[in-house]
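Structural prep section.
Before we set up the soaks we want a predicted structure of the protein with flavin-adenine dinucleotide in place, mainly to decide which crystallisation condition to try first. Input record follows.
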Amino acid sequence: MDAKIAVIGTGSIGSMTLWQLARAGVDAIGFEQYAPGHDQAAAGGESRIFRTAYLEGPQYVPLLLRARELWRELEEETGFDLLTLNGGLMIGHQESEPMRIVLASARNFDLPHRVLGVEEMRREYPQHAMRDGEIAFFDEWAGVLRPEFAVLAAATAAQQRGAQVVSGTHVTDVEPHGDGVRIHCGDRTWTVEQAIVTAGPWTNRFVPSLAQHVHPRRLVMTWYHPSGSVTDYLPDRFPIFIRDTDDVHVFGIPTLDGGSVKVAPHASFGQMDDADHLDHNVAASDLEPINAAVAELFPGLVPTPVRVAAYMDAYTTDGHALVGEMPGTANVWLLGAFSGHGFKMAPAFGQVAAELAVDGKTSLPIEHLDPNRFLT
Ligand SMILES: Cc1cc2nc3c(=O)[nH]c(=O)nc-3n(C[C@H](O)[C@H](O)[C@H](O)COP(=O)(O)OP(=O)(O)OC[C@H]3O[C@@H](n4cnc5c(N)ncnc54)[C@H](O)[C@@H]3O)c2cc1C
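Run finished without errors. Recording the tokens verbatim:
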């Protein structure tokens, strides 16, 4: 055996998995086609939102609370500054479904929060132009993550604890063999007891039985410059936000570079045929809706982006990830298709993956993510 457990893809989830395995003293090896911390897949673009009162469903809150603890442990272990909890605003109509779920999450788990009306928002956060009838839910345990550094930090911490990372190596197949698994990488084959597939946008290649339920999607991020002073958009003045009201679906992050403010579409730019062919060019016409939203909702920003970039993530048809046994494949675990919202929970899913591979079960709630839900 070359190692006890192999991790295929050391991106967001894979690097955290490797870190958790190494912390548990497990002999683990990670395979990555680029190198940990690259920005060619799901983890690029400088920043990711962390939030706790979850509009995707209260079933995620225990994972989010565990992730919050683990982000701090990773920072402590590596010295990297990864998570700034500067708070988050969810803006929408009070009676809307996302707002109801967010409020239910906060109440059920006693999460620190405030609800602000239009007048309070105009007073406290004049950066946002509010529409009549909207409210804002302020999540105290929300903020900004730094994705490239976080992946690098986890992979480095794992290596310092004895894990191996094989970079620049494309895994072509993961093949159960006897009591173990063979990992095929071009001209070399590695043998391990178990494998964990964390291939992000390439997830569908490893799960043919779920091909019609998993697809890579392209996401475009846009950054805008303030027309005046940038101070109103620094983290201590400008919480992260998500705004889902009527025709508007945008999210945003305070300036991290001292100049540009991320305000981006809270939706994907459509399904891709193949994650190997991400189109980095963004047509001017694609930017018109987000520029119009910025012009209406952010009077202090110049409504033409100073930076535009395309990334991708794998999505399932129900918007929830695939976490559990790889369907029909012994000794292989699958964590993929995080559907545009997996980064914030990456260290918790690293714990899930390590527990599944070592103990066959996990202490964290993942029932709603069972890959078999699409096969029954
Ligand atoms: C633009 C954008 C904005 C987002 N915003 C947020 C946000 O604010 N908050 C949030 O929580 N989430 C957000 N997400 C979602 C989140 O970033 C993803 O869900 C998460 O990063 C997915 O992690 P992953 O490990 O599955 O994929 P990745 O991080 O892409 O990792 C997969 C890795 O596998 C490697 N790999 C794949 N195939 C092979 C192979 N055959 N051989 C070797 N290596 C391989 C890849 O190179 C890659 O490094 C966003 C996503 C995007 C794209």
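Observations: The longest helix spans residues 61-78.
Flagged for discussion at group meeting.
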